[in-house]
Structure formats: structure tokens, C-alpha cells
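C-alpha cells for Bifunctional diguanylate cyclase/phosphodiesterase. Go.
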Amino acid sequence: MTSSVSLLRLVLLADEPAWRERLVSALGLLPDPHPLIVAPDWATAMAHMAEPVSSVLLAAPAQRPASARFPWPTVLLVEAELSETPEGVIDWLIGPSLELEPLRRCLRYARERCNLHDIVQRLAKQDALTGITNRQGFQALLATRLMDDAGEALVLGVLDLDNFRRVNDALGHRAGDRLILQVVARLKAELEVGDRLARLGGDEFGLLLDASQTGRIERLADRLMGTLAEPYWLDGESLMIGCSLGLAHAKPGADADQLFWLAQIAMRQAKAKQGCTWYLYNERVNRSAGSLADLEDELRRALRRDDLELHYQPRLCIETGRIVGMEALVRWPHAERGLLAPDEFIPMAEESGLIVPLGYWVIARALRDLQSLRESGVGELHMAVNLSFRQFQDSQLLATLERLIAERGVDPHWLEFELTETAVMRRSDQVRGTMNALAALGVRFSLDDFGTGFSSFVHLSRLPISLLKIDKSFVDQMAARPQNGRLVRAMIGLAHDLGLEVVAEGVEGAAQLGQLRRFGADQVQGYLISKPLPLAELRPLLDRGHRLEMRG
């Protein structure tokens, strides 16, 4: 017995009423009759064929589509046998002798053609490795969503993996593919109904997120960054890789290209923070500046006028409860946009090259303030300054630093440069040479945001690094994710085996402090101790003998 085909929607386009009667009679003999729609004209037939249902066009010769590129299967309705199949037609039915078996065969073949069409369409919009939507399909989906609901309650995310090329270079492209599959699996596990995920390129992903619930995007972004920050396992090896997520709210009337542009700006701002971080596009930052070029000109003028300022966040020794150091963080008091944090202008400074003079301004100001603190009798404090990789490449770095230290008369042993994993992994021979030359002056180094880049303890052991700073994303998740707590404990143990001190960043609660104390961390930094403060507001903390009463 021949099995019946799956249901198809049949669209009939024929002038003669007899064809409707013949088809209705023959279709009624099938176990599962297919719906038959009679179209009075070509425009009506096209409207039905455009609906997302597998359809077959039944047309008399005079009404058949002129183009052979018509996407849906076309069956020609004729009054006599044909000698060959006309172009653009998959089969024909003969009216006077229409019988069940030829009709059944015709519909089965049409079903196969519909399935093939669906597969081709799906593959054209599907990433071959992961099976999720590709860039073409995602752009079409985004345009549809913006058209359907004017972009209300919709957020676009652009996610980029940091240093993914290093994974391919070090472990091979097959390992890179396996890493991509693990990333996709983690993202899918956190997304919900209404969210969509796509692979836009080799290590770039797109997300369409439902923002109908207040605060959901921020909570989801935190979860995504937390799960992606955990170690990956490839061929028995553990590695950690950073990522950057840029988010942008859709606005009424916005088109897809504009929204992509905003999300990519946010992604670059997230990338400046290092580690697994996210950033939601801030319209306030860009509202007054017509372009990034305008913002660049404003920052250049601010540097010339000395309009920037430094805030300092203290670091606490867990064992003694004393402030033993502080990190210098630049702020921009903008006349129109208020006090701007680094992530609101550092990405632009990195791209434009302004990060080099900006970095020297920060070093000079930090040394001046350190000299002032020492002269006021606050005692011994390490001053930590973030050093950009672009500044690290500057041929005048060593000479400029020697001059600034001499001008201020500061012992260079109290100056500390914070480098990211990304910086120390790039051009490692050059980096090691520069670090050794600076270390010879007495400057020490800390590795910022440890655990969020692609690095290894073996590589780090070859560099003159004194401290590891565990990224805030791991500290935040210690209580919620037991595996993160075990990972932090392991990081601290391995760092101590290499003779390194450990600083935990982003400590905001007494429970976190207590857990880090039990794990053996040496220092902590975060809002539990103090937020970043201008020097004048920091002095009262230091005047208490550096000691804070801590519980945990």
C-alpha cells in the first residue's frame, strides 16, 4: 500500500470551473485531503503562495508564472498528454482522465520539492558549524522584528570573544571550533523564549533579547558574562578566554544598520574594560558629541587644559586590615555630560592613539599625588596605574618614566603598573623585554583582571609580575556558583606557588571578604573598603593610620 504524502496547500489558478470540480473529487479520495484554495487571479495566488506554508501552484497553461525562477513547485493542468515537461514545471495533470494514483504521485513529488526548498532556505540562513542562525538570517530577523513591533522592548547584543585567534594559533582550528560550540551551548542555556542567538562571524555573535521586563537585560548580561568567564576544556586542557558584549536598546524608527552600529560601539567600550564584560550603549555620552571625532577633539583639549582628574581606590591587606596601596583611575569632568568614567572615553582614546599622552598624564599626576601623600606623612603606599598596551609599545616609555620619577623624587619601588592578560600575551618577547627594563628601575607589575584572558601560569612565570588581580566577575559569582569558588581558591593557590600576591577585585560584601580570607587571598579592593575617591576625600581614610575595621 502506498503511503499518503504530508499535507500541502494547493493553490488553483485556472479559468475553467471544471478543474475545481475534478480536483475536489480526486482529493476527497485521499486519506488526508489537502486544502484547495481557488485563486481568481495571479495577484491573489501570489499572496497565498507568500504565506509560510508549503504550497503547490496548480495552473492552466495560460495562467502559469512566466518566470522559471518561481520558487514554489508548479503543476501544469492540461487537457492532453505532453511529450516533455515544460521548463519551470515539475509535473502535469491531465483533466479528462484525472485519477487518484497520478495525483498521489504528483503530490508526493511536490512535497519532496517543497522539502528541498525549505532545506535550501534554512541552510542559507544557518551557520554550518553551530546550527544557529547566521549573519544573513539574523539581519533578516532583526529587520522583521523592528518592522513588526517598531523595536519596542527589544535589545540587540553583539558579543565578541577576546583573543580567539590565539586559540586557533596555539591549539588548532578544530579546537577553535570545539570552543565555539561550547560558547554557543553556554549562551543557549541562559537565553529564554523570545531571545534569539546567531553567529555573525568566526568569533562574533548576535543576540536579540526580550527587554519587556524591567532590569532583565542587566541581569541576563551578568549571567551571560558569568557563564562565559568559567574555564573551557579542550583536549584535556583548561583555558579561560575573555569576551565583550555590547548592548543597545532599539528605538522607534531605528533601522537595523543603525542599531548594529550602536551595539558595536557598546561592544568596543566593553572591550576596553578587559575580561568578560558588558556595556549598554549610553546615549548620554553620544548625545552632545556628533561623532567620535568630536569626542576625540574634546578629550585632546581636556588634556591640554589639564581638565581631567584622578580618583583613587584603596587596596586593603586582609591580614592586617591596613590600606597598603591604591589604584589610580582617571575621570573626565565634562562640562555637558557630567563626570565620565573610563569606559565612556578610553575606547575612543585607544582607537585614536590619545591613550599614549593620556597615559603619561595619569602617571605624572599619580606620581605627584604620591609625593604629596608621602610628604604629609601617610606612610608607605603602593600606587597602581593601568598601562595600556599601546602605551607599552611606545619607544619613549622608559625614558619618560625615568624623567617623571626623577622630577618627583619618588622611590620607583612604590610605583606599580597594572597590565591585562591581553597585553602580556601579545608580542610576548617585546613585552618581556620592556617589563624587565622597567623592573630594573624598581617598578613592579600586577596582572589585572586575571582569569578573563587567554594565558597560562607557565607563561606568567617568565615575567616579572608580583601580583595577580582576580577579576570581579569571579568574585561576584563565588556564592552563586560553587565552581567559581573552587576556581578562585585554585587561582590563589597556584599564584602563591609562584610566589605571587593575590588581590581580589570587586569585593562588595562581608561574606565575600570572609570567603577570600579562608581561600588565602592577600589583598582586596572594592566598594566594601571604598569606592574610588578624589585625593582630598581619600585622605581621611589614610589619616586613620590606614587601618579599617573589617568583618567577614
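The chain has 21 helices and 23 strands.
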